[in-house]
Task: inverse folding
């Protein structure tokens, strides 16, 4: 385990600061027999793949693979004699695999081979050509359990019993915050109509033949930053848009 005085590379990345130029450094390594990342102390800021494998204590090196875990969930293979500079790449996590392993997974009903037991959500999406901007990635659960939403940096162990099955769902529209009568409201960004804004402004809207509503807005889209709405009219919205909805009794 890494001592307290080692420069923690993960903390440097999290804090947005450059690691110091001289060691020792603390990095995290997982695999080949455990999914858990453990901290290791290294003195040299520049490591090659076989040194990382040696830190984990597995042999022989040429029967193992070492991957850098990229921020966001991707993997990048590090060759045995390829150098990695801990100070310049924001490198903090590595995973080691036994190179003889082979595993299967199903994505949208199609079966794929994967050379290691661990895989990230991002890599599953890449293999299955799933656009994570437009779709969510889900894992099918057996035995009546609820399916799991898989994030890009989620690590899945493919050596668990049974074939892991994944599928995509269209992402729900992202909500934005607008202000209605001084209160923050979270809404979908497709636009709002006169009646929608009345419902947002009042838990129980006033009723009666003599009730008249007036709606004005500001901080709107560039082509119409301010204005008013009449009954049955709709308006495009953006985050931070401000609406004032008033009810007047004409009786």
Result:
């Amino acid at each position: 385990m890494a001592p307290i005085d080692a420069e923690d590379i993960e903390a440097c990345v999290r804090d947005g600061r450059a690691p110091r130029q001289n060691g020792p450094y603390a990095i995290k390594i997982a695999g080949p027999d455990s999914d858990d990342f453990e901290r290791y102390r290294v003195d040299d800021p520049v490591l090659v793949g076989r040194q990382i494998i040696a830190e984990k204590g597995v042999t022989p090196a040429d029967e193992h693979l070492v991957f850098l875990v990229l921020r966001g969930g991707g993997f990048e293979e590090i060759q045995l004699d390829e150098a990695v500079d801990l100070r310049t790449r924001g490198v903090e996590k590595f995973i080691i695999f036994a190179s003889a392993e082979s595993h299967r997974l199903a994505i949208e009903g199609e079966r794929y081979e994967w050379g290691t037991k661990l895989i990230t959500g991002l890599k599953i999406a890449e293999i299955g050509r799933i656009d994570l901007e437009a779709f969510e990635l889900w894992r099918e659960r057996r035995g009546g359990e609820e399916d799991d939403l898989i994030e890009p940096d989620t690590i899945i162990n493919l050596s668990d019993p049974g074939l892991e099955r994944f599928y995509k769902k269209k992402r729900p529209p992202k909500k934005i915050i607008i202000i209605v009568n001084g209160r923050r409201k979270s809404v979908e960004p497709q636009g709002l109509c006169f009646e929608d804004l009345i419902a947002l402004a009042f838990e129980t809207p006033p009723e009666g033949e003599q009730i008249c509503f007036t709606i004005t807005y500001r901080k709107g889209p560039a082509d119409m930053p301010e204005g008013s709405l009449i009954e049955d009219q709709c308006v495009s919205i953006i985050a931070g848009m401000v609406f004032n909805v008033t009810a007047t009794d004409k009786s």
